[in-house]
């Protein structure tokens, strides 16, 4: 098994507060890893540091063996564009654009004919039960539909790592269960590595492994 991501004694402080305290962690290529812990324990901060949305105070993070660049560098911009995808609780979609357009925006850097991109996007929308709303603006979609559009964008956008921050937090119980199944099935089918911050025990239980902030890794599944 290849290691995609390595964290070595990563620490993050804000003023006098230590949010992350010497976190060390290896993430295997293709696995799903749930990051859990009480509110305020630094789960989202850890995801932001890994995703180059914030920088660590000390320690090192390596992506495929190479140390991550500074967050405001051109190299960081390229790494975020080409290798890292984000799935937020708010979905971060363009409300005035259609479901299909939101997915195509994520694919814009790919060297592929537009017609081929559309074919792939429509195929995934069909698999997710969204074919009928492909041309509907996101503002008209339900929360569950938006979550699936955001997932489709992550899967088709270039990048082997998906960082998901409470991706089921805005969904009701029934829709959250559907979203969990789709997310965990499709990340494997598309060869993506999934890191998911969650307070939902159902999500954590179904991931390959669980990392609990402050205690370490326990077996998942």
TrEMBL record:
Q: Which residues form the ABC transporter domain?
A: 5-217
Q: Indicate yes or no for the key word Protein biosynthesis.
A: no
Gene Ontology molecular function: any one: ATP hydrolysis activity
Checking Gene3D superfamilies in the record gives: P-loop containing nucleotide triphosphate hydrolases (3.40.50.300)
Arranged from A to Z, the UniProt key words for this protein are: ATP-binding, Nucleotide-binding, Transport
Does this entry carry the keyword Hydrolase?
no
Q: Which InterPro entries match?
A: AAA+_ATPase, ABC_transporter-like_ATP-bd, ABC_transporter-like_CS, MacB-like_ATP-bd, P-loop_NTPase
Task: Name the protein family.
Answer: Belongs to the ABC transporter superfamily.
The protein depicted here goes by the name ABC transporter ATP-binding protein
């Amino acid at each position: 098994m290849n290691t995609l991501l390595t964290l070595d004694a990563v620490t993050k402080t804000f003023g006098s507060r230590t949010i992350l305290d010497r976190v060390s962690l290896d993430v295997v290529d293709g696995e799903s890893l749930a990051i859990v812990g009480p509110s305020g324990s630094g789960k989202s901060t850890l995801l932001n540091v890994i995703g180059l949305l914030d920088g660590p105070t000390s320690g090192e993070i390596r992506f495929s063996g190479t140390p991550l660049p500074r967050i405001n560098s051109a190299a960081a911009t390229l790494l975020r564009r080409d290798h890292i995808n984000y799935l937020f609780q708010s979905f971060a979609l363009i409300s005035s654009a259609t479901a299909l357009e939101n997915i195509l925006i994520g694919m814009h850097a790919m060297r592929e004919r537009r017609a081929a991109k559309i074919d792939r996007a429509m195929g995934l929308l069909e698999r997710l039960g969204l074919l009928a709303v492909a041309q509907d603006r996101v503002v008209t979609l339900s929360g569950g539909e938006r979550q699936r559009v955001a997932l489709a964008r992550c899967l088709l956008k270039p990048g082997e790592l998906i960082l998901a921050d409470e991706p089921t937090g805005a969904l009701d119980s029934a829709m959250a269960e559907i979203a969990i199944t789709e997310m965990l099935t499709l990340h494997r089918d598309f060869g993506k590595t999934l890191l998911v911050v969650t307070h939902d025990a159902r999500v954590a239980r179904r991931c390959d492994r669980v990392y609990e902030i402050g205690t370490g890794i326990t077996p998942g599944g």
